Amino acid sequence: MWTINHAADVLQACEQERVDRPPITDEWPELDLDSAYAVQDEVLRRKLEAGERLIGVKLGLTSRAKQQRMNVHAPLTGWLTDAMVLPAGVPVPQDQLIHPRAEPEIVFVLGRALEGPGVTAATAMAAVDMVYGGLEIIDSRYRDFRFTLTDVVADNASSAKFVIGGVGRRPEELDLALEAVLLEVDGAVVDSATGAAVQGHPAEALALAANDLAQRGLRLEAGWIVLTGGMTDAVFTPPGSTVGAHFTNLGSVVVSGG
Amino acid sequence: MDTATRALTAQQLVDAYGSREPIDQISTRFPDMTLADAYEIQLLQIRSRELAGRRVIGQKVGLTSAAMQRQLGVDQPDYGHITDDMVFLEHVPIDASQYLQPKIEPEVAFVLKSSLRGPGVTVAQAIAAVDFVLPALEIIDSRIRDWKIGILDTIADNASSGGIVLGSTPVSLADVDLRLSGCVLHRNGDVIGTGAGGAVLGSPITSLVWLANTVGALGITLEAGHIVLPGSQTAAFPVAPGDVIRAQFAGIGSVTARFAPNSPATTEGAS
């Protein structure tokens, strides 16, 4: 019998034992968005109880292409804890992950709290203190990254690890719609995009996150990190590979597959 | 392919422009077709255009993105010729019905101040030969049915060229990092694609160098004043009558292509 708690057990076991599984909705088709977020919150509660610290949120499905593929019209959010931070120069921890992939993102650090509803891109941007380039290492607990919207929400939006680049800029210095990233694997360009690929503008993604969380009585706190969503499709990071994200004004972030 | 087959194929492609009726894929009909055959078929068409009074004003490089090369299963770009009748002004509506199956691509165009003659052209020499860059939109089109092309087909078909629209904000190469400069492509106000200059063979400059050296080996010089379109920064997107396409490039400016509505009468009735 599926419950919020059971789903949290199952997903946490997958993460800890590095085993993937079929989508939960194969067996629990009634899993709705509210319950899926409740699963996400339950896993977070357990992690915080075990000593991890909540340090921010991530957005997923912020590109129109991905939304069309999943047949949804809005992005989703997931929680970031300090255990997910991958320091610069440290390889992808293959021994902790199932089938990690990397995607380049524009990362915000909030200077003050942001509470919806009614947050706009402009008011969201006013809460941003610094902007960074980053690489998010996503890892689905579902086999072959096959899942429905509610599955991926329950799985904390496939979050695993993230690296933040060393070049921080003030938001007013940047035109984020035109801020580009060149994604390289083993030195060869495989993809490119700009911030406009993220919900039209990463500030729109931030506003959506704030307004989404408000529906659950939550807000984004000062000092939090916000990963605004993959600018390109994700690329695998197998052992021996190197993934580089080179930004127009936000420097380079490189991660090794170990 | 023998000379007569090349000439016949070139004529079929020329005819397709007029009839707007695409031809069947060439390379599958002639399995012995080579790269030399494909470029010769292209050149025959360019010569016939020149005989009709058209002038070559530059070249374009195609198949420059990792995605396109993967899709066609090739590891090299190709090139085609730009003639003066392919150039449109930003404010003049383009009649989409002159094309068979048009798509649009955002590019940063090079305008040369001195000629470039390969082989042996270096990145440094290529940069020194560039007068300025302009924001550009390339209309690509295929005279081959359903865009069912391999590299030989697109080469024979003038690298799937259609037309170009140039913006009017010249920028010096010293003032922009072409590799990391971002590009956003809008269709009727919606963002349909984004990318960076580096999507073009790692850098658009690489594309210029490749072109100079590749045509140089055939005895062709890139001329001063000529335009070089180095390759698209995003995927190509289909365009239809009435579409307004705008490409914006970080540090370079923007360019707009307006496609005329299908029929003036319909427009009047609607307004």
Can you describe what's shown?
The complex is a heterodimer of chains A (258) and B (271). Chain A has a single domain (4-256), classed as Fumarylacetoacetate hydrolase, domain 2 (Alpha-Beta Complex). Chain A is built from 7 helices and 11 strands. Chain A has helices at 4-17, 24-27, 33-49, 64-70, 121-126, 149-154, 202-215, and strands spanning 54-60, 76-81, 101-110, 128-138, 159-164, 180-185, 188-194, 225-227, 235-236, 242-247, 252-256. In chain A, strands 1, 2, 3, 4, 5, 8 and 9 form a 7-stranded mixed beta sheet that branches. In chain A, β10 and β11 (252-256) form a beta hairpin. Chain B has a single domain (3-270), classed as Fumarylacetoacetase-like, C-terminal domain (Fumarylacetoacetate hydrolase, domain 2, Alpha-Beta Complex). Chain B is built from 7 helices and 12 strands. In chain B, α1 crosses α2. Mean pLDDT of chain B is 95; it is low at 266-271. Chain A binds chain B through residues 64, 175, 177-182, 188-197, 200, 231, 246-248, and chain B through 66-67, 177, 179-184, 191, 194-199, 202, 233, 248-250.
Layout of strands and helices, then pairs:
The complex is a heterodimer of chains A (about 260) and B (about 270).
Chain A: H1 4-17, H2 24-27, H3 33-49, E1 54-60, H4 64-70, E2 76-81, E3 101-110, H5 121-126, E4 128-138, H6 149-154, E5 159-164, E6 180-185, E7 188-194, H7 202-215, E8 225-227, E9 235-236, E10 242-247, E11 252-256
Parallel strand pairs in A: 1-8
Antiparallel strand pairs in A: 1-2, 3-4, 3-8, 3-9, 4-5, 6-7, 6-10, 10-11
Helix pairs in contact in A: 1-3
Chain B: H1 3-19, H2 35-51, E1 56-62, H3 66-72, E2 78-83, E3 87-88, E4 103-112, H4 123-129, E5 130-140, H5 151-156, E6 161-166, E7 182-187, E8 190-196, H6 204-216, E9 227-229, E10 237-238, E11 244-249, E12 253-258, H7 264-270
Parallel strand pairs in B: 1-9, 3-6
Antiparallel strand pairs in B: 1-2, 4-5, 4-9, 4-10, 5-6, 7-8, 7-11, 11-12
Helix pairs in contact in B: 1-2
